[in-house]
Specification:
The complex is a heterotrimer of chains A (404), B (324) and C (302).
Chain A lengths: L10 H17 L44 E6 L6 H11 L2 E6 L3 H9 L7 E2 L3 H9 L33 E14 L23 E4 L2 H11 L10 H18 L2 E3 L2 H7 L4 E5 H7 L12 E4 L7 E8 L7 H11 L2 H11 L2 E2 L6 H6 L14 H6 L8 H15 L3
Parallel strand pairs in A: 1-2, 1-3, 5-6, 5-7
Antiparallel strand pairs in A: 4-7, 4-8, 4-9, 4-10
Helix pairs in contact in A: 5-6, 5-13, 6-13, 7-8
Chain B lengths: L31 H5 L12 H30 L29 H34 L3 H11 L6 H14 L8 H27 L2 H8 L4 H30 L2 H5 L9 H10 L4 H26 L3 H8 L3
Helix pairs in contact in B: 2-11, 3-6, 3-8, 3-10, 3-11, 6-8, 7-8, 8-11, 8-12, 10-11
Chain C lengths: L3 H8 L2 H28 L2 E3 L4 E3 L10 H12 L2 H32 L5 H9 L6 H11 L5 H8 L14 H25 L3 H9 L4 H12 L1 H16 L3 H6 L8 H10 L4 H33 L1
Antiparallel strand pairs in C: 1-2
Classes of the chains: A alpha/beta (404), B mainly alpha (324), C mainly alpha (302).
């Protein structure tokens, strides 16, 4: 803590401070005081895979250690994104309490990982930030000796472009981004299903995801533009303007709870992730049949796909147990159980679409929620951007959020 | 919750109407007022409203009371709903308190939130009350420029919206005071900062109305300064101190913004945070049950304070809160 | 009061010693955090972690972000946000005055025997969590909630009103509902102190009850009215949770929502901190106006 004057900040001091302010304006900020460690963070793309560097001061945990016992295994996850039963069973088996702390955005997750005083054992990063947070030494490399179940993962994700060799992450779930709707209130679904969100008939009942990238990508895809990772300021700004049409048109609302809002009827149309609609089946009020739920995802044309992953923060206090937890989630039976709670499809090879329908996981109408490795291959992913471009996306989103 | 500013904090409310001491504004020439203000358009001097107006006012007041409390009562009612709905009544049940897997008793995160809120409020009260009383005494008796500056500084938190204070505390704990971990320690520090000024204001206004004569008399009779404080001033201040402590407790229980900015993980979630996030995610009558329990906690604290204060002039303590 | 004890007091180190812990506390946890906001606003954001890197040394303060916020508030996307916030706070405050003044007046002057009970009922919301009170309305305002049931049953509307769908009226009503208790109480205490004898004098001099109100009570309560308005409006300016709960749509975004967005999300925290500074400056200007005006109101009375 820097030494601060003993006397309070009185008026004179404020004047001095404002004088300094003028001085600062005169000399301007000194760019040399801003280290740019970020220049070294590579931007991974499907055609430009990246092997994330290891750091000598962040070693992986040694093999053949006994799992830590007692206390808490702390997860940092989206809300309702892991089955409490799965957690509970794992905890009972290993004599720990599994505690879940939630966040709603990746920034929030990173902030929590960085904040002193709290440490987490498992976190759930999306591929677009893995390079950054591993370069920032927030993650520890995985020791695959603890992960025999890794062999169950989709082939495409066993050596993913964003983390060649799966040094820091293993995949968790795969999803698509489409439009969830109440089939009993939406009479016709246009061939371009994104139009549902621009339909004033659903005014006040129309939601989009609370996510800058997803929201702006929606505005682009509606116009058949696929530049969802563009760094071009004009295009990004244009997407913000297009999105703002929704404010007057439908009084659009912003949220990430499509599974509940669509099921309960508070939302008629909701841009959402595929898993939300699978999940919505269990949120339906009594007496409402599951076939009122619909999910539109572009058939043939590219749409947004994504994966979530599992990683172990550097500050984990139970790294061995954390590895075992990851491995536990990659076990097909556990993955299946977890799937039945979250509605998000694990990227596990044995869980096939046929099996999902046969097992009654999804209704006929919700078949479109299923992600196959082929859909994943063809889809557009929202990938890491350079910091200036990220700021542009955020500004365009803030512009939309500000209303008119 | 932000509480009102004191009437006139810098001068203190010296002329206390209860003690019958007259105020300097006793006799402004009433007749000169109309000259200053534009003449009223009262058409007839008839006193038709002398009796009837209060009926309109009374109706309005009772309507207001209904408007302000009825929704809460209905929310409490729905905590006893047998069904999952929060908008249609499906019969009486205690399942959201205990029994249902999502009930307060069965859901550890709800129990934790309840415990966190209570512990936080108690710790905040224990720290903020003595701190505020000492500050009030010091500021009331210590004259000088530094004292005036400190007095002004003390009032600033009352005039600061919580998002400003919350974000400032968040930034300072994450960038400068790194030795204070986010979570309960930071939350206690934040809540004390938020509420210490209430104690100062209440105690100072009481000090001003007590005056310094008793203390001087005690000093003239040979009591030391500390003894005079302990034997004379403190007993007179008790109702104000209790009132201040109650306000601190209530404001800590009520606070959402600061708790939420300073809560890094699930272990420091308080009831308002839980309510806020759950309302946005997955509302169920269990939330109403949780809110009802918190309400019961506040009511209990209030009743307890009332019982404790009965002997020491409870009505006086309540009156102390009125000028707030 | 004699001067001698005053001199004796000044010499005593007891009083500064008593004031010291509290003062230091507020310095360390109010003044310094405020400086931290400035340091963040005039610093930059680490692009790897999206975390603020504060600039503690004023010599290196970078005013770009603050300038950007200022410019956007004057003519850019933040302008409608500020105007909307002012409008919502203004209308909510007007509602508070319209409802709160008569209630406080009745409570202070006419409540009679029921005064204790009424006072307790009016104070009750203070002890009820703000979010709880919002939750209560959320239940009532559902499409199939009691409010719509009532409106439909009385044939005031033909179909359910969509209260919770980005409806600005709901936000304004919710704000008024949330903050009105903080308006009534200080006003009540001022009105309670209006000297009964002045009103008697006014009546004796031939004033009607109404005229007495306009010419005696109202001017005397002006100071309380302003205090009540200040304590109600200030927190409203910093409110982001009410409209998130009852609307959640960009149609009703307020300044504090954008602060929350930039500070907790976003990749440029200095924008959020700058917005905090700008809002604080605005509120300080309002406070200064309040202090000057209420000082004048006080002087007029004496």
């Amino acid at each position: 803590m820097p030494s601060h004057p003993r006397e309070p900040l009185d008026r004179r001091r404020f004047l001095v401070a404002s004088g300094l302010l003028g001085l600062a304006a005169a000399c301007g900020a000194d760019p040399s005081r801003r280290p740019s460690a970020t220049a070294s963070v590579p931007l991974s793309r499907p055609d430009r895979p990246v092997q994330l560097p290891l750091h000598t001061d962040v070693p992986a945990v040694a093999s053949k250690r006994p799992p830590e016992a007692g206390g808490k295994l702390k997860l940092l996850n989206y809300p309702e994104y892991i089955s409490p039963d799965v957690c509970k069973k794992f905890g009972e088996e290993h004599g720990v309490e599994v505690e879940v702390t939630t966040f709603t955005t990746m920034d929030e997750m990173v902030a929590k990982l960085r904040t002193g005083g709290e440490s987490f054992d498992v976190c759930f990063p999306t591929p677009d930030i893995i390079a950054k947070i591993s370069a920032g030494k927030l993650l520890q490399p995985l020791n695959h000796n603890y992960l025999p179940n890794f062999a169950n993962v989709w082939l495409q994700l066993r050596d993913p472009f964003y983390d060649n060799g799966s040094r820091y992450t293993v995949p968790y779930n795969a999803y698509t981004t489409g439009v969830g709707y109440r089939a009993d209130r939406v009479t016709t679904v246009p061939s371009n299903g994104y139009e549902l969100l621009w339909d004033p008939a659903y005014k006040g009942k129309s939601y989009i995801l609370d996510d800058a990238r997803e929201g702006l990508a929606l505005a682009m895809l509606r116009r058949n533009l696929t530049s969802v990772n563009t760094e071009d300021a004009a295009r990004i700004r244009q997407a913000g303007v297009w999105l703002s049409e929704l404010i007057d048109l439908t009084h659009v609302k912003i949220g990430i709870n499509a599974y509940q809002l669509v099921a309960e009827g508070q939302a008629t149309v909701h841009q959402c992730w595929s898993g939300d609609m699978v999940n919505a089946q269990s949120y339906l009020p009594k007496g409402v049949k599951a076939d009122v739920l619909g999910y539109w995802y572009p058939d043939g044309a590219p749409g947004v796909v994504g994966t979530d992953s599992l990683a172990i923060p550097r500050t984990a206090t139970k790294p061995v147990l954390a590895h075992m937890f990851l491995d536990h989630l990659l076990d097909p039976a556990v993955a299946q159980e977890n799937f039945s709670y979250t509605g998000y499809q694990p990227a596990i090879a044995s869980i096939t679409p046929e099996k999902m329908v046969a097992d009654g996981f999804v209704t006929e109408a919700l078949k479109s929620t299923i992600v196959t490795p082929e859909i994943y291959e063809r889809g557009l992913q929202l990938l890491q951007l350079s910091p200036p471009a990220e700021a542009l996306w955020n500004d365009a989103w803030a512009f939309f959020k500000a209303g008119r | 919750m932000i509480l009102p500013l004191p009437e006139n904090p810098s001068t203190g409310d010296r002329g206390d109407h209860r003690t019958g001491r007259s105020r300097p504004r006793e006799n402004p020439p009433a007749r000169s007022r109309p000259a200053e203000n534009p003449p009223a358009r009262s058409r007839s001097p008839r006193r038709r409203s002398a009796r009837r107006r209060p009926i309109v006012l009374a109706t309005l007041t009772w309507l207001y009371v209904a408007w302000s409390l009825l929704p809460v009562l209905i929310a409490i009612q729905f905590s006893f709903n047998a069904g999952k709905s929060r908008s249609s009544w499906q019969g009486f049940s205690l399942r959201w308190y205990a029994g249902d897997p999502n009930s307060v008793a069965a859901d550890p995160s709800l129990r934790l939130a309840l415990a966190n809120s209570l512990i936080l409020a108690v710790l905040t009260t224990l720290v903020a009350t003595p701190l505020g009383v000492a500050l009030a005494l010091g500021l009331a008796r210590w004259r000088g420029r530094t004292s005036r500056t400190a007095n002004g500084l003390m009032l600033l938190p009352l005039a600061t919206p919580e998002i400003v204070m919350g974000s400032a505390l968040y930034l300072v704990f994450t960038n400068l005071y790194l030795f204070v971990p986010l979570g309960r320690p930071a939350q206690v520090l934040g809540h004390v900062t938020l509420s210490v000024s209430y104690v100062v204001v209440i105690v100072r206004s009481r000090l001003a109305s007590i005056g310094e004569e008793y203390e001087s008399a005690a000093r003239d009779l040979g009591a030391g300064r500390v003894a005079a404080l302990r034997l004379v001033v403190f007993p007179l201040l008790t109702p104000a101190i209790f009132a201040g402590a109650m306000i601190v407790f209530a404001s800590s229980m009520d606070d959402f913004v600061i708790s939420s900015f300073l809560s890094p993980d699930a272990s420091s979630v308080t009831v308002p945070i839980k309510l806020y996030s759950a309302v946005r995610n997955a509302p169920s009558p269990a939330l109403n049950a949780l809110a009802t329990l918190l309400l019961a906690g506040s009511a209990l604290a209030l009743a307890l304070a009332w019982l404790v204060l009965r002997r020491r002039g409870a009505s006086d303590a309540l009156k102390q809160m009125a000028p707030m | 009061m004699s001067r001698a004890p005053a001199r004796r007091r000044r010499a005593s180190p007891l009083w500064p010693a008593l004031a010291a812990p509290g003062t230091l506390w507020i310095l360390a946890l109010f003044a310094v955090p405020f400086y931290a906001v400035a340091a963040v606003a005039f610093g930059y954001t680490d692009p790897v972690f999206n975390a603020p890197v504060p600039e503690w040394d004023p010599r290196y303060w970078d005013l770009t972000a603050f300038g950007e916020i200022l410019q956007r508030s004057l003519s850019g996307d933040l302008r409608p946000v500020f105007l909307r916030t002012l409008l919502y706070v203004g209308v909510s405050l007007a509602l508070c005055v319209l409802v709160g003044y008569p209630v406080a007046y009745y409570l202070a002057r006419h409540a009679g025997r029921r005064r204790g009970l009424l006072l307790a009922l009016v104070l009750a919301p203070w002890w009820i969590n703000y979010i709880t009170r919002m939750l209560a309305w959320l239940n009532l305002l559902q499409d199939d909630g009691y409010v719509n049931d009532l409106l439909l049953a009385s044939h005031l509307v033909a179909e359910p009103v969509r209260w919770l769908s980005g409806n600005p009226y709901t936000v304004v009503l919710a704000l008024a509902y949330g903050y009105i208790p903080f308006f009534i109480v200080p006003l009540f205490s001022t009105l309670g102190r209006v000297d009964e004898r002045l009103l008697e004098a006014a009546r004796d001099l031939g004033c009607s009850g109404r005229r007495a109100f306009w010419h005696v009570t109202l001017p005397l309560s002006r100071h309380g009215l302003m205090t009540a308005s200040a304590v109600t409006a200030l927190p409203m300016f910093g409110d982001y949770y009410t409209n998130t709960l009852v609307s959640g749509s960009p149609t009703t975004t307020m300044v504090a929502n954008q602060i929350e967005f930039y500070l907790l999300g976003g990749s440029r925290k200095e924008l959020g901190a700058s917005l905090v500074l700008l809002l604080s400056a605005l509120l300080m200007a309002l406070m200064a106006y309040y202090l000057i005006a209420s000082g004048r109101a006080e002087r007029e009375l004496t």
